[in-house]
Specification:
By secondary structure, the protein is mostly helical. It is built from four helices and no strands.
């Protein structure tokens, strides 16, 4: 093998190593972005579930409050549950699209309004729009995943 053939062979070998490094780097970046997206989606799903569970707790407490005597103990429990929902809504404002946080705040305001009313059981609470907004954001209505 001549010197020029050796140089050409070396250049091609080095080029192959560089191409492999570049492809490996691209693959690692894609995998990292995918992992970050999955973590954000899991965080959103967990937060949305926590908000819904808290809204259901408030709903049950409102029901008990309207069925019972409206004692101070029930009023205090309702106040605690509403404050917890408000805290979750604050976190939701940082993590979710505006329409979702608006739906959640609207639900909280309706629950607060009912907690101050003598008749707290004024029909169903508007949980359905919030659930639909959560499902749409998570991509559960179309079968895909959220792009955020």
């Amino acid at each position: 093998m001549s010197l020029s053939e050796g140089i050409i062979t070396g250049v091609f070998a080095l080029g192959g190593v560089v191409v492999q490094y570049f492809l490996s780097s691209l693959s690692a970046q894609r995998q990292s972005r995918y992992q970050e997206k999955m973590e954000r989606l899991k965080h959103k799903r967990d937060l949305y579930a926590e908000v819904l569970l808290q809204a259901r707790r408030v709903q049950r407490t409102l029901k008990e409050f309207s069925d019972g005597s409206g004692s101070n103990r029930m009023r205090e429990a309702l106040h605690i549950e509403l404050n917890r929902l408000a805290e979750l809504n604050a976190v939701l404002r940082l993590s979710a699209p505006v329409n979702i946080s608006d739906d959640s705040v609207t639900l909280e305001e309706e629950m607060r309004r009912r907690s101050k009313s003598k008749d707290a059981d004024l029909g169903p609470l508007p949980l359905a729009p919030l659930i639909a907004a959560f499902r749409a954001d998570l991509g559960l209505l179309t079968g895909g995943t959220s792009d955020e």
